[in-house]
Amino acid sequence: MNRFVLWRTGATAVLLAVLSALVFVLQQISPGDPARAYVGGNASPAAVAAAHHRLGLDQPWLQRYGRYLWHALHGDLGISLRTHRPVTTDLGQFLPATAELVLFSFVLALLLALLFALSGALRWPGTGVYRGLLLLAGTAPAFLLGLGGIVLFYGHLHWLPEAGRGVDTSSPTGFVLVDSLLHADLTGFVAGLRHLVLPGLALAIAPAISIGRILRAGLERAYRSDYVRTARSKGIREITVLWRHIVRNSLDATLSMAGLQLGFMFAGVVIVEDVFTWPGIGYYLAQSIPQSDFPAIAGVTLLLGGVYIVVNAVVDVLQAVADPRLTV
Amino acid sequence: MSIIRIRRRWRIGTMVLAMALGAAACSGSGSGDAGAGSKPPTDGVLTMGLLGDIGQPPDPDIYYANNGTAIMINVYEGLVQYQNNTDQVKIAPRLATSWTVSRDNSVYTFHLRHGVTFHDGTPFTSAAIEPSFQRRVAVKGGAAYMVAGVKSVQTPDPYTAVITLDKPNSAFLSYLASPFGPKMESPTALTKYAGGDHDQKYLSTHDVGTGPYELTSAVSGTKYVLTQYKGYWGPKSPITTVNLPVYSSAAPLQLALDNGDVSAVVAALPSSSLSHFASDPNVRNYFLPTLQSSLLTLNPSKSFFASKQARLAFLRSVDQQKLVSQVLGKRSSVATTLYAKGMIPGDADKQDITYDPSVMAGYAKNLPSGTTMTIGYANGNPNAQNIAEILVAQMQADGIKATAQGYDTATVFSWPQQPTKGPDAFVDGNNGPDGGDPYMWGHVFWDASGGIDYFACDVPQVDAELNQAVKTGDTALYVKAAEQYSAGGCYMNLSYNKDWIVAQKWLTGVPQSQNLGANELNFSLLGIAK
């Protein structure tokens, strides 16, 4: 098992290095000029050339890449050409918002998936409408879902806010819901929750369907299995049969899918954050790309790539723990 | 427990969850509670929606982008500014009450306003000018050129400053009046917070200015907050706090304006929203003059427009009237001059391109079958995209395989160094000079050393004339340079663009708070109707 974990850790480091090299190559071949972002749109060629020199953009890209990797290993991801701040500072500011949104969406996705799977597998009457609506919403891309939600719930119904997190900054954790509870600020908690609902749903629905489908298939398999029939015949209460024998035995593939979807959510959060002006790293990335802010783009890419790889590695390890045959 | 009871419990659980979410949705006092329109604020809070983040730190010597000028002109002040509420390019007093210029445009003497203090309490005197200029040069921002030619700043008394340039420059007052121009910064604060980066870290979240508002919060990508400076020398506005929330796209910003959560939006909504707000009884629409234009630039480095004949034929096929009426609407008018509106007295810089599509149609007939061309526009500018698509349709009607292509800002700004990598033509939906002097237009758009001569369509004679004209301010020479450049067929001034400001009805003083150089409002001159 230790060898398996070591192997996955090493592979993660190599993947991150490859990812950063890819971003570097993309920057090299893209026509944009990052120095322009630094000095501003109308800057003269002389000012741009001076910025090139100051930023080291006039050096060979391999040399720059080597320096970037060396600094990255020491926790320095460079200076954002747009905000003029260290990228690590920017990521520190924006990451909690993303983490809160993704975790909220993930919990929402699990709840929606559970409802989707149980209602389908157990044939609960009247829930076909719910499943149909979820499937319908799942066919729409996240940005469309987000915009539609804003128009309906903010523009027409005035139920939910249209943008942002409800507060400018949040401390000590950076999670609005947690911080407001820590400060016993119920108003802040409700405001934070209201701001989370629409982007959370936009991000959660597609993963909910993926997870729900897998869980439903597992539930249906388990529901008709011999051991469930045996458990019932022994007179075990139905609720115990459901949770202990049906749901738990359906979770193996569901956990894999949930882990995969969590990784996808970190990747897909870019669009949702941009639609809702959610001040997370996805929004930060969306603002950085048009200006060729390479240090910011590379920093976010490494972070999101790292999260994705780590989540999948953790799922692999957990599966290996559950089924040691996988490590063979 | 039977499966029926499980279902019942589940239903109860889901009902509770739905009620909790519904209660969360309907409670609180978040930004979504307002109805259509809004009542005048009683707490003096104004909310001005920003479309996109300001893009750079709110540092007056770094900032050289777009909507962040709202912060620059309200938090900081320069010696002069452009006069508000007029479509003429006129320099007006700000921290300087009067000035004189030497005959050769190399010595500028300013008499400064008394009773002005910086936000840290330091009195504003002539001693503040040189450190402000020096910092601008030291941080090497895009607008550092404005003070690069300052040879010395003499201070014969605390309220007089004599600025000597290293060579004559008739545009210097325009540099100082520009929203990107040098602002006065507290020398005390500059010394105190200098750090190792000339105060750059400090000024990304604080300010050291004299303006009517202080920058009290700056959360990049989220919101900027300005709070009224109690010691301001000028008129006191009822607006005590200005929130500048950032919206990533126009749709939620428009909805926020509809719902009354945003008090006003300056030059940020697309033309497609014109009719919506024109018929909205809860808001007022203002169309105020600017130095901005929509521009059409042709690329002589690409084969399609390599010949002057092709370029001129294409420009003659552009129906300015149609483009302005179909795409830009009331926020623009047809450009008839080569420089920005009002830069040359009497509109002597007339743009002489007569509309005649038959010339291009005739030229296209002689092109090889399947000839292709691309018309570019900047991503995120729907007006430019619409214009490009109309021009493409026109070219296709002439038998040319034309396409419209969007480009990111960084890509667009890389073309002057590599014009062959650009499209055949580019529609710049909205751009303008840093200030109102014709040199600031000609040098930036027509001179390859200026900054945004997109396709390096450069005429050395024109550059020389512009460089000569800026020494003397000779209007006739500016006109001559413009006509020579226009004759090359690389350029067309499509439209004069206006600041389209949509504001809640209770917001007063909008035209009086705007000037053609700033593209933003001086919030201290706004009022609240009861």
TrEMBL record, chain A:
<feature type="transmembrane region" description="Helical">
    <location>
        <begin position="196"/>
        <end position="215"/>
    </location>
</feature>
<feature type="transmembrane region" description="Helical">
    <location>
        <begin position="133"/>
        <end position="155"/>
    </location>
</feature>
<feature type="transmembrane region" description="Helical">
    <location>
        <begin position="296"/>
        <end position="315"/>
    </location>
</feature>
<feature type="domain" description="ABC transmembrane type-1">
    <location>
        <begin position="95"/>
        <end position="315"/>
    </location>
</feature>
<keyword id="KW-0472">Membrane</keyword>
<keyword id="KW-1003">Cell membrane</keyword>
<dbReference type="Pfam" id="PF19300">
    <property type="entry name" value="BPD_transp_1_N"/>
</dbReference>
<dbReference type="InterPro" id="IPR000515">
    <property type="entry name" value="MetI-like"/>
</dbReference>
<dbReference type="InterPro" id="IPR045621">
    <property type="entry name" value="BPD_transp_1_N"/>
</dbReference>
<comment type="similarity">
    <text>Belongs to the binding-protein-dependent transport system permease family.</text>
</comment>
<dbReference type="InterPro" id="IPR035906">
    <property type="entry name" value="MetI-like_sf"/>
</dbReference>
<feature type="transmembrane region" description="Helical">
    <location>
        <begin position="101"/>
        <end position="121"/>
    </location>
</feature>
<dbReference type="Pfam" id="PF00528">
    <property type="entry name" value="BPD_transp_1"/>
</dbReference>
<feature type="transmembrane region" description="Helical">
    <location>
        <begin position="253"/>
        <end position="276"/>
    </location>
</feature>
<keyword id="KW-1133">Transmembrane helix</keyword>
<protein>
    <submittedName>
        <fullName>ABC transporter permease</fullName>
    </submittedName>
</protein>
<keyword id="KW-0812">Transmembrane</keyword>
<keyword id="KW-0813">Transport</keyword>
From TrEMBL, chain B:
<dbReference type="InterPro" id="IPR000914">
    <property type="entry name" value="SBP_5_dom"/>
</dbReference>
<keyword id="KW-0732">Signal</keyword>
<feature type="domain" description="Solute-binding protein family 5">
    <location>
        <begin position="90"/>
        <end position="441"/>
    </location>
</feature>
<dbReference type="InterPro" id="IPR039424">
    <property type="entry name" value="SBP_5"/>
</dbReference>
<comment type="similarity">
    <text>Belongs to the bacterial solute-binding protein 5 family.</text>
</comment>
<keyword id="KW-0813">Transport</keyword>
<feature type="signal peptide">
    <location>
        <begin position="1"/>
        <end position="25"/>
    </location>
</feature>
<dbReference type="Pfam" id="PF00496">
    <property type="entry name" value="SBP_bac_5"/>
</dbReference>
<protein>
    <recommendedName>
        <fullName>Solute-binding protein family 5 domain-containing protein</fullName>
    </recommendedName>
</protein>
